[in-house]
Specification:
With 598 residues, the chain is an alpha+beta fold. Helix content is 57%, strand content 11%. It has helices at residues 8-18, 21-28, 35-53, 57-63, 78-87, 106-119, 121-140, 143-155, 283-319, 343-375, 379-414, 426-434, 443-455, 461-476, 484-510, 513-548, 553-570, 573-581, 586-589; strands at residues 66-68, 71-73, 158-163, 179-182, 188-198, 207-214, 227-232, 234-236, 242-245, 248-253, 264-276. The strands form 3 sheets. Strands 3, 4, 5, 6, 7, 10 and 11 form a 7-stranded mixed β-sheet that branches. Strands 1-2 form a two-stranded antiparallel ribbon. A hairpin with a 5-residue loop joins strand 4 (179-182) and strand 5. Helix 9 runs parallel beside helix 11, helix 10 packs antiparallel against helix 11 (379-414) and helix 11 crosses helix 12. The chain is globular, with a radius of gyration of 24 Å. The two termini are 45 Å apart.
Length: 598
């Protein structure tokens, strides 16, 4: 198994040198998030991730979770690691102090999530799902619901889930059949079956709070008739203690390609007592609070698998001897050269490095917008950040998981045949990463959200929230010869982005299929430009540091080399995507459905 080491130097580069997190926290009035406090939290989070969670990663994969008559047992060490996590106060890091949280910014919590997820993604999903449940109850719950459930979730004593889809409906939640019948005491009796419920049943916490979508008896059809409910595994007594078992049980565990250490459950609700959260028939609106949190969390998964693939294959490439360099021996004292000397291995390593470090910058930037939405003083600041976050979220989720999977595969490829063998851990990284492009909405669903809802339905205003940032950056760098290799291509693409959007929009006015036909290519095109912006910023910082003189010359030279690689070999992928996204829907829709099979 590759030995995970938290990339602290690059984390600090993004936080301190690119995003000026210290000033960001001052602007928020987050006085408790001092540089020393932030650094101490990151250091301790790294130790926990490296020393406690990483050694359990393969254990979770090989043992998996065990189901026995509705009860689920997690792999060896998972429960004990969770208790350490709770005792360390990690679940409460970025939550309201009035409800038992530490009140630190959300962006700091996401740094921890990256390290925890890279060390052991399956384990990280248990507290990760709780985070979304907390945000949903905090945003839409009553004071009583917050005191009853949110305080326990924040402490980590209880965990949470999101129960959305059902066997017959997939992403189309308008088809769901789970019912909620009103009881005399103001509660509801919830009945139905939910599938693919991550962390739906386990032995790590004393109670599990399910956030469940269901229909009221008089609900209209479709998505307009969905309500949201809190359904605990164990009912809660008036004094807040855990009471009798509720009518909810795990019917089975899914047999999965990866993330074996996480319990992915079929959950059966049989007259389970639930409590309405938010207004009747507005459940999907409320659930978007949960889903948006989960989508950003899944974007982190893409980053995690890219980082793990990179770390593992880099160590291997430095040690594995095979063939001689085409320009002569680089290690003449050895029987062959290490494979890192070969250009194609460099291509694979640099691709992983570019996606991991670029993805980190994108996610941390998005996390700062989350902070602003929650804590900014003015409505104008909050609305601006919310619009930018809304635009970036589907890109972060879908693009980073796609390139995270690409990176995981390249990590395996660097090992050659050894990558296919389980003991090295690279094939697990590939299997674990594959789900990231599916849950919280597939790449296709995210692409429709981006192009259809976010961009075209706002007449391009959503797109401008980011293209203006890129334009200002390029304008400010005009005349700087060292930045010309980055600013020139970026400015050209930024202009083309708007032109292509308009072209697709005009075609869609004639045929709505054009939106679906262009959407995934459009999202990937957008993702490459977004990362191009962050790599251009990285190059600018590196140039400045090298010009000033630094004791970390190797670090900044590596930043410049990776930026050059990205602009020369990754960003040009946009050229193909520009062609395919505007090729029209006819080449996809011409073949009749019945003619696909012969």
């Amino acid at each position: 198994m590759p030995e995970y080491k938290a990339p602290l130097r690059d984390i600090r580069f993004v936080l301190n040198e690119m995003l000026d997190t210290e000033q960001h926290y001052v602007n928020l009035g987050a006085d408790e998030a001092s540089p020393d406090m932030v650094d101490a939290i990151i250091e301790e989070g790294a130790k926990f991730s490296e020393q406690v969670l990483a050694p359990l990663n393969r254990v979770g994969d090989t043992q998996g979770c065990q189901w026995n008559d509705g009860e689920v047992t997690t792999p060896d060490g998972f429960k004990e690691a969770y208790q350490q996590f709770v005792e360390g106060g990690w679940p409460s890091l970025a939550h309201n102090t009035e409800l038992g949280g530490q009140g630190l910014p959300e962006s700091l919590g996401l740094v921890l999530n990256e390290m925890v997820g890279s060390a052991n993604w399956s384990w990280s999903m248990y507290p990760g799902l709780s985070h979304g449940a907390m945000n949903t109850i905090e945003a839409h719950g009553t004071d009583e619901q917050k005191q009853t459930y949110l305080t326990q979730l924040i402490s980590g004593n209880w965990t949470g889930t999101m129960c959305l889809t059902e066997p017959h409906c997939g992403t189309d939640l308008g088809l769901l059949r789970t019912k909620a019948e009103p009881n005399d005491d103001g509660s509801y009796s919830v009945s139905g079956t939910k599938i693919f419920i991550s962390a739906g049943e386990h032995d790590m916490a004393e109670n599990i709070v399910h956030i469940v979508l269901a229909r009221l008896p008089d609900a209209p059809e479709g998505t307009k008739g969905i309500s949201l409910f809190i359904v605990p595994k164990f009912n809660v007594n008036d004094d807040g203690s855990v009471g009798d078992r509720n009518g909810v049980a795990c019917g089975s565990l899914e047999h999965k390609m990866g993330i074996h250490g996480n319990s992915t459950c079929v959950m059966n609700f049989d007259g389970a007592k639930g409590y309405l959260i938010g207004p009747p028939n507005k459940g999907l609106n409320c659930m978007f609070t949960f889903m948006n949190t989960a989508r950003l969390g899944t974007a982190i998964q893409g980053l995690c698998h890219a980082e793990v693939g990179f770390q593992g294959s880099l160590d291997y490439a430095r040690e594995r001897l095979q063939m001689r360099s085409l320009t002569g021996p680089k290690a003449p004292e050895k029987s062959a050269d290490p494979i890192i000397v070969h250009p194609d291995v460099r291509r694979m390593l640099l691709t992983q490095k570019a996606f991991a470090e670029g993805g980190r910058a994108l996610i941390y930037f998005a996390a700062q917008q989350v902070d602003i939405v929650k804590h900014a003083e003015t409505d104008e600041e909050r609305e601006k950040a919310d619009a930018l976050l809304s635009f970036l979220t589907p890109i972060a989720k879908a693009f980073l998981t796609e390139v995270g999977f690409e990176s995981a595969n390249l990590g395996l490829q660097c090992f050659g045949g050894h990558g296919f063998i389980s003991e090295w851990g690279m094939e697990q990284n590939v299997r674990d990463s594959r789900i990231s492009m599916l849950y919280e909405g597939t790449t296709g669903i995210q692409a429709l959200d981006l192009l259809g809802r976010k961009v075209l339905m706002t007449q391009g205003e959503s797109l401008k929230t980011f293209t203006k940032i890129v334009h200002k950056f390029c304008q400010a760098a005009e005349g700087d010869e060292a930045m010309a290799p980055y600013v020139g291509p970026l400015a050209k693409l930024n202009k083309e982005w708007g032109e292509l959007t308009m072209k697709i929009g005009m075609s869609a006015m004639q045929n709505r299929e054009e939106v679906g036909a262009a959407s995934v290519d459009y999202l990937m095109y957008s993702g490459y430009i977004v990362l191009g912006y962050f790599w251009a910023r990285s190059a600018q910082i590196a140039q400045q540091k090298l010009a000033e003189g630094t004791t970390e010359e190797a670090f900044y030279q590596a930043k410049l080399a990776t930026a050059n690689f990205y602009f020369a070999r990754i960003l040009p992928r946009t050229q193909t995507l520009a062609t395919t996204m505007t090729s029209g829907a006819d080449n996809l829709m011409a073949l009749a459905a019945e003619d696909f099979a012969f």
